[in-house]
Write a structure and sequence with these properties.
Chain lengths: ~525, ~525
C-alpha cells in the first residue's frame, strides 16, 4: 500500500468508475497501518552506521540507555530514549515499556525483544551483529563508533537501519486521499472507534486520526512523574491515617488537573477512566539505590521499607492483588480516584459548552458481588458531588470483562453496569494460561512448529477467547438490553480481529491512536 | 463425628433398624475427614509449652527450622521439620511446602500461613503470642524455652498446642466400624476413587484407605533428593548434547526404579503419570550460597550460571514456560520421561502376575495441536518398546484439562486422547485470574466482606469453573464416546465438590491419600 494507491482509488470515485463503498472495500487495512508509524524525514539523507533486522516498525530517536532503571528515569523526565542491550529477557520488560525504541545485538523476528516490541508498539531493530554492549562502562560500540549513556541515536524498525544522532522524524498524518477514504468509511460503519490514551498530547494525536472518544484511560499512568510517584509511594507505604490522608490530598490535586484537561480535550465525547489496576508493588522501588533514596525521601528506615516490600511482593503479579481487588481492600484508593475524576469533570464542565461524558470502569472482576461493592461506593460519591443535577455532566459505570469467569457470569454482572469493556489482553492470558511477558521463550518454537494458527495476542483467538466474548455479549444483553459493549485490548487494532468483533455487533472498539484509522476502515469493510 | 457414632450406625444395621444404605447416608463426610489426620498418641500425656490457633488440622513433629532453604534441604534428606516464623508471606511458600508443619507468631484462620497450610495439607498452629524468632541467631523463644535450628518440636494443628520434643504420632487408619461403613459405601457408588501420590510409601497409605489406583503421580517429585536434583540441574543447564545425554542417562536410571516400584505396589490398578509440569527455573538454585555450590558441583563458572538463571527467570511462572510447553520445546525431557516410564513398566511386568496399567497425561494444554504433537511422539516410543505385544502392559494417553481454553476446545482435544483429567487448581486460578499463592493478601478481606460464597480452592466454584467443566465433559464425550473423565485437583477431596462431580457423571476422582475415605463415602451418598 502506498499513498498513491489511495489517490488512485479517490480518482476512480471522482470518475464515477467506483462507488465510495467500492473504494472503501478495496483498501487493504493491514497495509494502511504501515503508513501510520513515525518515519524518518526523507530529506535527512543520513547514512546508517549499522543495519540489523527491523522487527517492529516505526522510527525512534532518543538518548542511549542501557538499563530498565535509566529508561524509566528518563521517561519520567519526559525524555525519549533508545534501550540498547545484547538481548532482552523478562527483567527488561519495564525498560522496554519505558523506552521509545529498542536496539539489540542478538535475536530475530520471534525473539523476546521482537515479540514484546510489537506488543507494546515500540520500534525495534534486533540482531545488529556489530553491536557490543559494555555494561560495566555503560557504553556500547556499534561498528567502529562508541556511544555512552546519554548519547543520541536513531533507529528505524521498518528497515533495520541504525543512525548516529537524533534524526528528525515525520509523524504520520491523515490528509489528502487517506482522509477522503476514511471519511467515506465513517459513513458506512456502525461501531464507534475510540482510543486508549491518558495524556492530552496522545488524545490530540488520536483526535487527528478520527478517534470518537477515549475507551481506556489507564489511571495509574498519571503517576509516572517522579514527584507523583513519590506521593503515591507515600500513600502505599503510609502506616497511619494522618500520613495517608496527607499523601492522598496531594494525589487528588495532581489528577484533578489531568482529568479536567483530558475531559476538555475530548469535549462532548466519552472519556472512559479505568480504576487503578496493577498490583501496588509495581510502583515501589526495586534496586538497592532506589530503595535507599525512597526511604530517605519518605523518612522511613531502610529496614522497615524492605520489610514492607517483602510483604507486598508477589509470585504471580498478573494473577495477584490488583484491579477490583485493590478497590475492595484499599477503599481509600477508590475514593481518591473518584474524588479526582469528579473534581476534574466539574472543572471541565465550567469552562466548556459541550457536556462532560464521564465513564468509570472497574478492572479484573470475576464476580457480580465485586461489581456491586464498588458500584455502591461510586454511586454514593457521584450523588454527593451534585454533578448530575444539571445535564452538563453525564456519568456511567461499567466493568472490564477480562477474566473467563466474568464472561461466564456476564448475566449477573450486566445487571449492575451500564457497559462492558472487553480487555482482550488479560482475557487471552487467562484463557490460554499464558503470561504475555514470559511467552517469548516458547512462542518462537510454537510458531516454527505451527502449534498456533496465529499469535493470539495480535489476532483474537476466535475459537477460544472469541467464544467466551460471544457468550458474554449474549448473556449480558439478555440480562440488560441497554448494555453497551466495547473492546479495548490490543486485538481492537488488528484487522482480522476487528472483523470478528464487528460480527458480534459491538458498540465501539478502542485502540492506540496510530491504529484508529485501521479500525475506522476495517469496521466500514465489515458491516453486516 | 466420633468413632462411636460410626459404631452405632453399624449396630443399627446389624439390628436391622437401618439398611446399609441408610447407614452410609447418615455419616457426615465432612466430619469423617477430621478422623483422617495424624494425631498425638493419646498415651503421651505431654504438657503443651504454648498454645495458639489451630488453623490447619493434624499433628506434626520434626526439627525446628527457620528458612525455606533449610526446610527444602531437610526435606531432601528425608527429615521432617517444623517451619517456625513470625508470619509467612509469598517468599515462604516453598519452605511451607517442604516443611511437615508450620508454626507462626502472628496471624489467624485467614492469614497467609493458615490459607496456604490448609491448601497444602500441612498442620499449622498460628498466632502463638509467646513466640519470638531471632533469625540472626537462628533461634526462637517459645514462652521461657529457647530452641535452635535442629531442635525437636511437635505441633497439633487441630487444637493449637505446641510441645517440646518429638512426640509419637498416631497415623489415622481405617478399621472397625469405619471400615465397615466405607465397605458398604463402595457397593453403592459409580465413580472410582484414586489418589495423588508419587512414592511407594504414600501409595501404600492410600491403598490402606481404599484407593483404587493413582490418578496423579507428579513426575517432577521424583527429583527431590540432592543427587537427583543435581543431575536434573545438569540437564537443564547443559549447553552441549554430550553433557545433556550423560545427564539424561542418569535420570532415566533413577526414575525407572521408582516407576517399577510404584507399578508393582499398585499391581493391577491404573497408575497415571503426569509429564513434567513446573517451569525449569523452579529446580534451579536461588540463594548466593546455593548458586556457588551448584556452579562448583557442575563445573560451571558462577557468572555463566547466573546469566543462565536470569534467562530462565519468569515474571508469572504460573502462566509461563511449563507443562506441555516444556514437552514441545525440550523434547529430550519428554523422551527421558517416557523412557523411564516404559522401562519401569517392563520391569514391573516381569515380576508380577497382574497387568501393568500405565496412563500418561500431558499437563497445561490449551490446543488440540499441542496434544497431537506430544501424542505422536509418545505413541512412537510406546510402539518401539514392544511392550504392547503381550497384554501384560496396557497403555493409555490423556490430557489434563486445567485451562479455560482446553474446556472450550474439549471437542477437538477429546479426539486425540483416551481420557481427560480435570485439574481444578489451575482451572480455578485461570478462570478467576487468581494466583493461589498470592491470594491470601486479599482473600481474608473477601471472606470478611462476603464477596465469595466460599473459597473456590476448597469447594469447586459451581457457577463458573463448574460450568466450564460441565461444558468440557459434554463436548468431550460428544466427540469421543469412550472418553474417560477424572478429576484430580484439591476439590476432589471436598464433599460439596464431590457431590457436584458425581452429578456430572465422572468416571473417577483422585485426591490425597487422607481424603480417599471422604471421597468413597461422599460419592456413595451422591449417586443419582
Amino acid at each position: 500500500m502506498r499513498r498513491q494507491s489511495l489517490e488512485a482509488a479517490v480518482d476512480r470515485v471522482k470518475a464515477k468508475v467506483w462507488t465510495k463503498q467500492t473504494a472503501v472495500s478495496r483498501v487493504d487495512a493491514g497495509r494502511l497501518s504501515l503508513l501510520l508509524h513515525p518515519s524518518l524525514k526523507s530529506s535527512e539523507g543520513a547514512s546508517p552506521i549499522a543495519t540489523g533486522l527491523g522487527v517492529a516498525p516505526g522510527a525512534a530517536s532518543g538518548l542511549v540507555t542501557f538499563t530498565a532503571e535509566d529508561a524509566a528515569r528518563l521517561r519520567a523526565r519526559g525524555k525519549h530514549c533508545i534501550l540498547v542491550v545484547t538481548e532482552t529477557g523478562p527483567a527488561d520488560i519495564e525498560g522496554m515499556k519505558a523506552a521509545t525504541g529498542i536496539l539489540t545485538a542478538r535475536g530475530g523476528m520471534t525473539s523476546h525483544a521482537g515479540v514484546i516490541a510489537r506488543i507494546t508498539g515500540k520500534p525495534c531493530v534486533a540482531g545488529v551483529r556489530t553491536l557490543t554492549v559494555d555494561l560495566a562502562e555503560m557504553s556500547c560500540r556499534i561498528g567502529d563508533r562508541e556511544f555512552h549513556a546519554g548519547d543520541r541515536l536513531t533507529i528505524d524498525g521498518s528497515d533495520g537501519c541504525v543512525y548516529a544522532g537524533m534524526l528528525a522524524l515525520a509523524q504520520p498524518h491523515i490528509g489528502g486521499a487517506m482522509g477522503t477514504v476514511l471519511g467515506w468509511s465513517d459513513a458506512s460503519r456502525k461501531a464507534a472507534v475510540r482510543t486508549n490514551v491518558e495524556t492530552v498530547e496522545s488524545a490530540k494525536t488520536a483526535l487527528s486520526f478520527g478517534a470518537e472518544g477515549i475507551g481506556l484511560a489507564r489511571s495509574e499512568h498519571m503517576f509516572f512523574s517522579p514527584e507523583r510517584m513519590l506521593a503515591l509511594r507515600r500513600m502505599i507505604l503510609s502506616e497511619d491515617e494522618e500520613d495517608r490522608s496527607r499523601a492522598i490530598g496531594g494525589l487528588v490535586d495532581f489528577q484533578t488537573g489531568d482529568y479536567s484537561a483530558l475531559f476538555s480535550t475530548m469535549a462532548g465525547m466519552p472519556v472512559n477512566v479505568r480504576l487503578f489496576d496493577p498490583p501496588l508493588h509495581e510502583f515501589l522501588p526495586r534496586g538497592e539505590e532506589e530503595i535507599d533514596d525512597t526511604a530517605a525521601s519518605l523518612g522511613l528506615a531502610v529496614r522497615a521499607l524492605r520489610l514492607r516490600l517483602e510483604r507486598l511482593a508477589e509470585i504471580n503479579p498478573m494473577l495477584g492483588h490488583r484491579g477490583v481487588r485493590l478497590a475492595i481492600t484499599y477503599p481509600e484508593i477508590l475514593q481518591m480516584q473518584m474524588q479526582a475524576v469528579l473534581a476534574g469533570a466539574r472543572a471541565a464542565s465550567e469552562t466548556q459548552s459541550e457536556p462532560v461524558l464521564v465513564e468509570v470502569m472497574v478492572p479484573f472482576v470475576s464476580t457480580a458481588t465485586e461489581v456491586a461493592f464498588v458500584r455502591e461506593r461510586v454511586d454514593a460519591m457521584v450523588a454527593n458531588s451534585g454533578l448530575l443535577r444539571s445535564d452538563r455532566v453525564q456519568f456511567s459505570f461499567g466493568t472490564m470483562i477480562e477474566l473467563p469467569r466474568a464472561c461466564l457470569r456476564a448475566g449477573d454482572i450486566a445487571q449492575m453496569v451500564d457497559f462492558f469493556s472487553f480487555g482482550t489482553n488479560d482475557l487471552t492470558q487467562t484463557t490460554f494460561g499464558i503470561s504475555r511477558d514470559d511467552a517469548p521463550t516458547f512462542l518462537a518454537a510454537y510458531q516454527r512448529k505451527g502449534i498456533y494458527d496465529s499469535d493470539p495476542f495480535v489476532s483474537v483467538d476466535e475459537k477460544g477467547v472469541g467464544e467466551l466474548i460471544a457468550m458474554a455479549i449474549e448473556r449480558g444483553r439478555a440480562a440488560n438490553p441497554r448494555l453497551k459493549i466495547g473492546i479495548c485490548g490490543e486485538n481492537a487494532g488488528d484487522p482480522a480481529s476487528l472483523r470478528f468483533f464487528a460480527g458480534l455487533g459491538v458498540d465501539y472498539v478502542s485502540c492506540s491512536p496510530y491504529r484508529v484509522p485501521v479500525a475506522r476502515l476495517t469496521l466500514a469493510q465489515s458491516r453486516g
